[in-house]
Automatic annotation (TrEMBL):
<dbReference type="InterPro" id="IPR019888">
    <property type="entry name" value="Tscrpt_reg_AsnC-like"/>
</dbReference>
<dbReference type="InterPro" id="IPR036390">
    <property type="entry name" value="WH_DNA-bd_sf"/>
</dbReference>
<dbReference type="InterPro" id="IPR019887">
    <property type="entry name" value="Tscrpt_reg_AsnC/Lrp_C"/>
</dbReference>
<protein>
    <submittedName>
        <fullName>DNA-binding Lrp family transcriptional regulator</fullName>
    </submittedName>
</protein>
<dbReference type="Pfam" id="PF13412">
    <property type="entry name" value="HTH_24"/>
</dbReference>
<dbReference type="GO" id="GO:0003677">
    <property type="term" value="F:DNA binding"/>
</dbReference>
<feature type="domain" description="Transcription regulator AsnC/Lrp ligand binding">
    <location>
        <begin position="73"/>
        <end position="140"/>
    </location>
</feature>
<dbReference type="Pfam" id="PF01037">
    <property type="entry name" value="AsnC_trans_reg"/>
</dbReference>
<keyword id="KW-0238">DNA-binding</keyword>
<dbReference type="InterPro" id="IPR011008">
    <property type="entry name" value="Dimeric_a/b-barrel"/>
</dbReference>
<dbReference type="InterPro" id="IPR036388">
    <property type="entry name" value="WH-like_DNA-bd_sf"/>
</dbReference>
């Protein structure tokens, strides 16, 4: 791991287990000075290691209990405009470029199957989208995790 020392690793494990932990809690939990914890946490957020803090809402809490993964084949010449169009669809919560038969993986949140259909039709209206395929998420088996990579 480039740029992460032993203290950084311990801090990252602590923050992964307790995302709302204060600097004081981290310092006490790890047995380090508050100033040390503060400077390490600041450096982790300023560098490429930690994403900006956000709350991870459960889809059902915003009235959209159904998750789906939409893969899309795209016309590369309209890529920038297409990303702008996709970002205007509120139900699109993530979009990543992928390799393989498709070009994009788009995660959407929906109220029900009819809503999935409506959202995917909106995706198809975006500039440059040629074809999509949709898979419903039935159950989250392993939630997103990272701390195991610090070992």
């Amino acid at each position: 791991m480039t740029g992460i020392d032993g203290i950084d690793g311990r801090i990252l494990r602590t923050l992964d287990a307790s995302p709302r932990a204060t600097v004081q809690y981290v310092a006490e939990h790890l047995g380090i000075a508050r100033g040390t914890a503060h400077s390490h946490i600041g450096r982790l957020f300023e560098g490429p290691h930690l994403c900006p803090v956000s709350s991870r809402l459960r889809p059902a809490s915003v009235g959209r209990p159904l998750r789906a993964q939409v893969t899309a084949e795209v016309d590369q010449s309209t890529f920038e405009g297409m990303i702008g169009d996709l970002s205007k669809i509120p139900e699109v919560v993530e979009c990543v470029a992928i390799s393989g038969a498709s070009d994009l993986a788009i995660e959407i949140l929906a109220r029900d199957a009819d809503d999935v259909y409506r959202i995917t039709q909106r995706i198809m209206e975006c500039r440059g989208i040629r074809r999509t395929a949709t898979s419903l998420v039935l159950r989250e088996l392993i939630p997103r995790r990272m701390s195991q990579l610090l070992d």
